[in-house]
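> Could you send the Alpha/beta hydrolase prediction when you get a chance?

Sure thing. Input:
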Amino acid sequence: MAYVEVDDGVELYYKAEGEGKPVIFIHGVWMSSRFFHKQMAYFKEGYRAITLDLRGHGNSSKVQSGHTVAQYAQDVKVFMEKLELQDVTLIGWSMGAFVIWEYLHQFGEDNIKASVIVDELASDFKWDDFDIGAFDLATLTSMMRDIQTDQSQLLEGFLPLMFKEDLSKEELRWMLRETMKVPASIASAILFDQSIIDCRPYFSSITLPTLLCFGRAEKLIPVAAGEHLHKEIPYSRLEVFEDSCHCPFLEEPERFNMVVDRYLQSL
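Output:
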């Protein structure tokens, strides 16, 4: 197992395969690098394909501090520097999109070739001027309490909402194992931070080519979120996956891999 130390006592687990321009896959809240297992075999043929577990997630260090989107972005910056990665494409799913936008806000676009945003809103919170958000205060509070009282039960209810079709028992089992690797104290802390971050002020300054990938099914994130991003982020392109919900890279992996690859090849 490969690790990179990005902070005092913080090691990030990662997997890297293939040669070429680096492509880093960044997972969502509570998730892990394993959720991108259908991408590695494809992308390693033409890229240096890299998956990582953010701090507190998957096989990375379970430290009790630093669980903010801003810190996760800083961790990614150090990770890239330690591996001496150049001309990087960042692919962010769900919270991973926030990590990308926060990275660009803190560090700019130097050394970043492009970004791919997978099924995320400009903010998960329902602000007074942003009614397509996923959570209001009552919903967020309830979820944080449920994490503390019965994390497994919460996840068993949440994970199926990410998919258009029903999960098999085997699929739900491995996803539950991965997401339960995040201690409840970390799970509630990062849920709060990633749910109230508002990235709308960042978008006008983004000049990177940006591919937006959204599932048509709207159990969690509406397609309107992708349309909003497409309108607000210059040089963006929106791709809608008709047979997907929150995870087009798992629900339509062949099409997802091809769409992302062709987009990157076109730049």
